[in-house]
Design a protein that fits this description.
- The chain is mainly alpha-helical.
- The chain has a domain of 66 residues.
- Helix content is 48%, strand content 8%.
- Strands 1-2 form a two-stranded parallel ribbon.
- 14% of the residues are buried.
């Protein structure tokens, strides 16, 4: 089944890439990166109804932890090391959560398109917030 999916995707000009499992992710997060995350999550959580799980800034920040942001930054470094081009490519992130990885891709590459999919509806509402002032 895996080979069939890869063949079908290749015929459409698409490919799936996986990160090597043995890699450890401990890239340092800059103060400005942390501030961007905090401000955006705070702004978003403040607009949510009190009964929503997305209204709790601490819970959102625990999800988009420094470790997770570090993973995303290391992932971008790894794409460069493996010579995986993101420029002029259409990128899909399945299980995009907050959409922060797509935000980083947009800021570090020039993709032709970005699409995020997540089953958590409220997370889908958070993803566009990375583009707000």
């Amino acid at each position: 089944m895996k080979n069939l999916l890869a063949t079908v995707m290749k015929s459409m000009g698409l490919e799936i890439r996986r990160v090597p499992r043995s890699r450890l992710f401990y890239k340092n997060i800059s103060g400005s990166e942390r501030l961007t995350v905090d401000q955006t999550l705070r702004r978003f959580s403040d607009t949510q109804p009190p009964e929503s799980s997305m209204s709790d800034f601490r819970q959102l920040r625990a999800y988009l932890s420094d470790y997770r942001v570090s993973f995303f930054l290391e992932l971008l470094d790894l794409t460069k090391q493996l010579d995986i081009a993101l420029t002029n490519r259409s990128i899909a992130d399945v299980g995009c959560g907050t959409g922060y990885l797509l935000h980083l891709i947009e800021n570090t590459s020039n993709p032709s398109g970005l699409t995020g999919f997540d089953t958590h509806t409220e997370m889908n509402e958070l993803a566009p917030q990375w583009h707000s002032p």
